[in-house]
Design goal:
Length: about 190
């Protein structure tokens, strides 16, 4: 069997290059081929380095965005712990006001005390509002497990089952986050 050693057909450009290379020593041709391989390898490395730079830039941009978001969240919700502590003060003021009977509210001896407690409660509400702290609506609404915490069920013929019929403790939001859930009593079907 004879091996077919046909060469692929040369284009006029290939022929022109071959003519130019006639007479060039073989070691120069090999050196040129090595240079071409080296150039090809360097181009591949350059492309890989460019890709790594693009990935590094994207990662840097993502880190910067995350840090900006974290800083914004920290600023927006910095008062969360303090606000939770002040909620108990607000609750105690509300309890103090509700503990004063209506007939004592008109007594001159107690009237100024009640007015002072009411003014303090209004001031706390004003400070809450200025910091994005708002009371959660509960009464008469369907139970929302994201904002309400059901403490007891009360049989009721007047309200739909699952409706909040009593607020045991007010709930609050700070901007769009839950600060404290409203503790509520929920209606259920009477037995």
């Amino acid at each position: 069997m004879t091996e077919d050693k046909t060469q692929p057909e040369q284009t006029p450009q290939d022929q022109a290059v071959a003519e130019e290379l006639k007479g060039v020593p073989e070691e120069l041709l090999e050196k040129n081929a090595d240079s071409a391989d080296e150039l090809s390898r360097l181009r591949e490395e350059l492309a890989a380095a460019k890709q790594e730079v693009l990935y590094a830039r994207a990662e840097t941009q993502n880190v910067r965005r995350r840090l900006e978001k974290d800083i914004a969240d920290t600023r927006a919700y910095a008062a969360t712990g303090f606000a939770r502590d002040i909620l108990s003060v607000s609750d105690n003021l509300a309890r103090a006001l509700s503990a004063v009977p209506a007939e004592l509210r008109e007594d001159d001896k107690v009237k100024n005390l009640v007015a002072g407690i009411e003014a303090t409660a209004r001031e706390i509400d004003k400070v809450f509002a200025s910091h994005g702290i708002s009371r959660i609506a509960a009464m008469g609404l369907p139970l929302d497990p994201n904002q309400h915490q059901a403490m007891i069920e009360i049989p009721s013929a007047d309200a739909e089952p699952g409706t909040v019929v009593q607020e045991l403790q007010a709930g609050y939001m700070i901007k769009d986050r839950l600060l404290r859930p409203a503790m509520v009593a929920v209606a259920k079907k009477p037995d």
